[in-house]
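Private note to self, pasted from the team thread so I don't lose it. Backbone tokens:
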């Protein structure tokens, strides 16, 4: 994931980096951002009055605190995936409930990111970040104490709201605290590294917690971290605010959040209410209508939250589509492999965390390689290769069975998927930002961030619902004929709704003479879940292939003049002292 790239690119292109040594530092920062992945931020002004901390120790202490706050927010995006099977079994929910646990956070986080960044610029970034940290901690307590799916989902949605208050402030504070060029470059590199750390330690830490405690622990762990971050922020992080703040497009924010939420609701709840039911169709239609009004409003307002005119530029819109499709596939893939490892293969949470480590490693390896390839061949061929690699990963994932060997069948699909995402993200972001003049970098950043988050949210919704539809359709007839003396209506409803109920079926005490029937039922449940996953994998494979074809046809091949600041370095091996990157 690579949301921070665009803001850093604007920073490195500014007059703050003059001279070859500073340009070299800028290259290191851009490579670091590309390496670490998704960091959704709003565009930042770097002309604010700097907040100086006289001593180097004070500056780096503030950096450590800011990175801790950032890590807390990023971990909440990764650690909860490991707990989904336990939450599903203990709270007796189906696939749709688990989809909402993931999407409730990303929907509110993405929808309020720019608004909270504006509030930080206006009222003080440290203040807004502190409020966000307190809110994340309080809502984590609420989630940990919840005994219903509604409570967990509500807590996750509220956590996303407060996480949106934390994240934009982190980079803005770093830019204002570190005014010396070299220190600023190193500080930003440390900031970007938090994404890679979160991807790596999220599944492992979540797996360890669930190995020793209940699913509530993935919420409780946030509380002491948030408390330490709040105290440290108040002690060691200086206040910072922007000299000038633009008007906030509240109507645009409300329309976009409402429209996307209704569409996601229709997709997630479609298997439950029926795809052609009045409820599903009405929710989807209303969602699309609100988004249409949103587009009209954004085209007319003088201060849009999302500049829709930019989508008329091919070198902007097609890479944005590639990013959206990439994150659609990646978020959906992560949701599916969680159910595969813990439901179908019956891995423990810790075993799943260890098994998923190659995914994080492959993202880290692929991103810098993609950047170097883009310098030599241009962004278009690299984006196409990345999308096709993702397609290979999903196709391979669609072939796995219950007994597929991990090293020869499962691992290659994870590695290909992760490499594909890593290869797409950096060059696509470069193309987006390189297609715009520097003074429109903020608008490009907003689109870049939005497409990622919306793509990821829809990935969980669409692919998860495909699995749910296949599973429910195939299992319902088998479950309905089970005598009530063996399985009551509530238990039947759970087994029909979620393949993760395999875990409950396995541990449920039954008379010995029913063991054979139980194994037959579990085998059927796993088979139905795999059929749904295979269908979802084919849909995602088709999506990335179509996107790859569109990019290959409509974007120019080879290194383009002015394609991006990063690619421009290869053309200027001996830049003049007064030139920019």
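Design output:
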């Amino acid at each position: 994931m690579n949301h921070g790239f665009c803001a850093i690119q604007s920073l490195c292109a500014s007059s703050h980096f003059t001279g070859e040594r500073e340009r070299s530092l800028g290259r290191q920062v851009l490579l670091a951002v590309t390496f670490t992945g998704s960091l959704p931020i709003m565009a930042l002004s770097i002309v604010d009055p700097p907040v100086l901390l006289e001593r180097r120790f004070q500056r780096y202490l503030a950096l450590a605190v800011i990175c801790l706050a950032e890590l807390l927010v990023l971990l909440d995006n990764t650690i909860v995936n490991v707990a989904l099977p336990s939450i599903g079994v203990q709270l007796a929910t189906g696939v749709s409930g688990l989809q909402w646990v993931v999407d409730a956070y990303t929907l509110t986080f993405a929808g309020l990111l720019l608004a909270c960044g504006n509030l930080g610029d206006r009222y003080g970034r440290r203040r807004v970040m502190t409020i966000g940290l307190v809110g994340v901690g309080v809502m984590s307590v609420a989630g940990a104490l919840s005994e219903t799916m509604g409570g967990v989902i509500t807590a996750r949605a509220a956590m996303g709201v407060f996480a949106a208050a934390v994240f934009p402030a982190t980079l803005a504070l770093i830019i204002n605290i570190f005014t010396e060029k070299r220190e600023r470059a190193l500080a930003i590199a440390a900031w970007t590294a938090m994404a890679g750390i979160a991807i790596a330690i999220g599944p492992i830490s979540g797996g360890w917690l669930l190995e020793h405690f209940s699913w509530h622990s993935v919420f409780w762990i946030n509380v002491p971290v948030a408390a330490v971050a709040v105290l440290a922020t108040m002690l060691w992080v200086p206040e910072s605010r922007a000299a000038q703040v633009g008007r906030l497009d509240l109507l645009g924010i409300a329309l976009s959040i409402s429209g996307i939420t209704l569409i996601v609701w229709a997709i997630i709840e479609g298997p439950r209410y029926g795809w052609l039911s009045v409820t599903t169709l009405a929710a989807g239609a209303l969602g699309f209508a609100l988004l249409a009004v949103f587009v009209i409003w954004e085209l007319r307002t003088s201060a849009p939250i999302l500049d829709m005119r930019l989508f008329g530029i091919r070198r902007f819109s097609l890479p944005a589509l590639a990013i959206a499709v990439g994150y659609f596939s990646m978020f959906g893939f992560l949701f599916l492999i969680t159910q595969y490892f813990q439901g179908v293969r019956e891995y423990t949470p810790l075993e799943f965390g260890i098994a998923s480590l190659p995914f994080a490693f492959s993202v880290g390896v692929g991103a810098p390689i993609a950047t170097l390839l883009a310098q030599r061949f241009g962004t278009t061929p690299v984006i196409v290769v990345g999308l096709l690699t993702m397609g290979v990963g999903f196709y391979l994932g669609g072939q796995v069975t219950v007994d597929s060997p991990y090293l020869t069948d499962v691992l290659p699909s994870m590695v290909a998927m992760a490499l594909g995402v890593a290869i797409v993200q950096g060059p696509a972001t470069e193309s987006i930002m390189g297609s715009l003049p520097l003074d429109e970098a903020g608008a490009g950043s907003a689109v870049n961030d939005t497409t990622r988050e919306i793509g990821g949210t829809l990935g969980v919704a669409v692919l998860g619902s495909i699995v749910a539809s296949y599973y429910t359709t195939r299992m319902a007839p088998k479950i309905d004929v089970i005598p009530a003396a063996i399985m009551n209506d509530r238990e039947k409803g759970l087994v029909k709704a979620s393949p993760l109920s395999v875990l409950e079926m396995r541990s449920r005490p039954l008379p010995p003479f029913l063991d054979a029937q139980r194994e037959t039922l579990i085998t059927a449940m796993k088979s139905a879940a795999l059929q749904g996953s295979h269908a979802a994998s084919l849909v995602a494979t088709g999506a990335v292939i179509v996107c790859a074809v569109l990019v290959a046809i409509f974007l120019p091949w080879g290194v383009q003049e002015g394609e991006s600041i990063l690619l421009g370095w290869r053309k200027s091996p001996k830049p003049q002292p007064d030139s920019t990157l």
